[in-house]
Amino acid sequence: MTTLTRADWEQRARDLKIEGRAYINGEYTAAVSGETFDCISPVDGRLLGKIASCDAADAQHAVDSARATFNSGVWSRLAPAKRKATMIRFAGLLKQHAEELALLETLDMGKPISDSLYIDVPGAAQALSWSGEAIDKIYDEVAATPHDQLGLVTREPVGVVSAIVPWNFPLMMACWKLGPALSTGNSVILKPSEKSPLTAIRLAALAVEAGIPKGVLNVLPGYGHTVGKALALHMDVDTLVFTGSTKIAKQLMIYSGESNMKRVWLEAGGKSPNIVFADAPDLQAAAESAASAIAFNQGEVCTAGSRLLVERSIKDKFLPLVIEALKAWKPGNPLDPATNVGALVDTQQMNTVLSYIESGHTDGAKLVAGGKRILQETGGTYVEPTIFDGVSNAMKIAQEEIFGPVLSVIAFDSVEEAIQIANDTPYGLAAAVWTSDISKGHLTAKALRAGSVWVNQYDGGDMTAPFGGFKQSGNGRDKSLHAFDKYTELKATWIKL
């Protein structure tokens, strides 16, 4: 554990040198156009730096670099064991630079420094090392053939991968994709969100320092409608992987069809139900988990437990426990190691969250906790964790992804009704079930249309379990060995002996 204080972090923030240029073919470079955009910290509204605003010309340079490097074989045809060693060194450099990366992450998107340092950076490093460790343990196949035939089934890297990642876990989401994409031998163009580009830009130089050849990893900061669109439409990008909103995910599928039918793997939105039955084994633990499920990372989590479904017979007993537990989640300065709720990523997102809170009032839900912007004097973007009771699942706050700390409480009377309400959204990313009845837990989990279901906990799992969604929460999976399917092609080679 670090002994750094808030004053220490603030001093480091003042001393920090911000790199805002793109990274193409192993070099930091300004955008071809010379255009930049301001990187504003949600912590206090300060200008962190000017960031290269890349567009189609930069995308072309990055794709050319990625393709040439891929075709050269310097990385794509390197022995898996050697790629493994390099990926492990890459992960080690993240740990070595953990405090610098954590500070960049916190200043850029507002999350608490303790989360950046002890959750995001270690999680990102583990994603790189785990994928690297796996790559020389994934075997190809020999088909069952007649004695005079030999059928081989081999995996090959897909080629040039474009990875578009979100602003809520910028470093970790990037590494969930970079781990398997790089380990399998691809060249990657990483496009971070314009709201949080700093760790991605720093990551690029660490990759080369680790021994990944120049041109294998390129980073293009900029806007989705410029450089993001250019990458999605590019005829020489083989695969596009994305984490973000369902709206943008759908647009990327259109761009694939309009260009070269590039493979598109999408992890999109969620409106996850957290179902608490009357026979939950520990209501206090369930209440504390419900509070953290909506307040952690300021509610800016695709799997946030934003709908709390409570069996009616215990709601009057359970809801006060949740309200009390939420009091422990109090927004504060993200550079204070004691803070557990930071700032929303920017003014636009803060106003979006506040508009949903207003919608809850308008639609007749009952505000029972939070609901206001606070700490305005700091210049930052802070909103209290918020609970609405008496919510109908038809209300806007129960149907749409808010991406902020706003919890909708919905009562139910039976298992069947709980499942019906839980599945009654366009999304299917995650869900949780609290019960002492093992059969009820299993049967409910089976009935829930979600890619991850947690029983008697919220947000369980690690790198060994796949992550992704059903329905309009997307396709494909991050994490686990299943992630490698997104970055490889299967080839059948049939040989007559």
Textual characterization of the structure:
The mean pLDDT is 98. This protein has two domains: 253 residues, Aldehyde Dehydrogenase, Chain A, domain 1; 189 residues, Aldehyde Dehydrogenase, Chain A, domain 2 (3-Layer(aba) Sandwich), CATH 3.40.309. The N and C termini lie far apart (61 Å). It is an alpha/beta fold. The longest helix is centred in the first third of the chain and has 22 residues. The chain is built from 15 helices and 23 strands. Helix 3 packs across helix 7. It is globular. The chain has a seven-stranded mixed sheet, with helices on both faces. A five-stranded parallel sheet has the order 9-8-7-10-11, with helices on both faces. Strands 5-6-23 form a three-stranded antiparallel sheet, with no helix packed on it.
Question: Which helices and strands occur, and which strands form pairs?
Answer:
Elements: H1 6-15, E1 22-24, E2 27-29, E3 36-40, E4 47-52, H2 56-72, H3 80-96, H4 98-109, H5 113-134, E5 141-142, E6 149-157, E7 160-164, H6 170-183, E8 187-191, H7 198-210, E9 217-219, H8 224-233, E10 239-243, H9 246-258, E11 263-267, E12 273-276, H10 283-295, E13 307-311, H11 312-326, H12 347-362, E14 366-369, E15 373-374, E16 382-383, E17 386-389, H13 396-399, E18 406-412, H14 415-423, E19 427-428, E20 430-434, H15 438-447, E21 452-455, E22 470-471, E23 488-496
Parallel strand pairs: 7-8, 7-10, 8-9, 10-11, 12-13, 12-20, 13-18, 17-18, 20-21
Antiparallel strand pairs: 1-2, 3-4, 5-6, 6-23, 14-17, 15-16, 19-22
Helix pairs in contact: 2-8, 3-5, 3-7, 4-5, 5-6, 10-11
